[in-house]
Amino acid sequence: MTDTGPAPRSGASPGTGTRQAGSGADDGLGTGPENEALAIAERARSCDGVAALSSGPFGTVATYLPGRRVAGVSVNDRTVEIAIVATMDRPLPETADEVRRAVSDLAGERRVDVRIADIRIDDIRVDDIVEGP
Amino acid sequence: MTAATGAGTFAVPGQRPAPPPPEVRGRTRIADQVVTKIACCAAGEVPEVLRVRPGGGTWRSPSSDAEVHGEQAAVYLSVSVAYPSPLREVAARVRQHVIARVAAQTGLDVTHLDVTITDFGGDLS
To answer: Where is the region Disordered (chain B) (predicted)?
Structure first.
């Protein structure tokens, strides 16, 4: 008897699932595209050698959700694009490959383009050497 | 017209190679700014170099400090050098060090590196 309570809801969800995901984006992780962007951002940020996510030089790499903006992740049905600010602890191609591997199961068959938009250098202060124009 | 090579056999055009596995699909792009920063830091590590500024000299300056085209990069730097040091040798050392550093950190091949010496003087630190 208690099983019949959830059953109609799950039966009705395929039709309205995507709409509900849009309205309830802040709630738990679902399978909607917006939650996918959040999950990809989370995975990428936790990779070794990634200091932060960046939205690129023109702010184009971002996903817009109701009420918020996920910088650094842009998802469509063919490509997943991730823009990162890397640290110099390891060579940049290794960092990019790790990011790509970390999100590969979320990306599925799509290609993952990693853009290294900027770097952060810890031990050397760039401003000490570089004189701005 | 040359498709039929024998009785019932056809020359089939070469098939497209199998795509790479999903986890290695996609491209890695490195921004110009990243190459600029690495090159400036690398140039500053040469002991005779006092100061580094991204970009070319004051005249005929290129439109950018570094340009990445595929696997190749072009870099433009302006440096000031301490007084009693041979400029050609310092420039060669800067060139060598920057190329090695950029290759190690980014995997890019620096095919064009302009070093402009904009100042000469100051103490060897």
So the answer is: 1-25
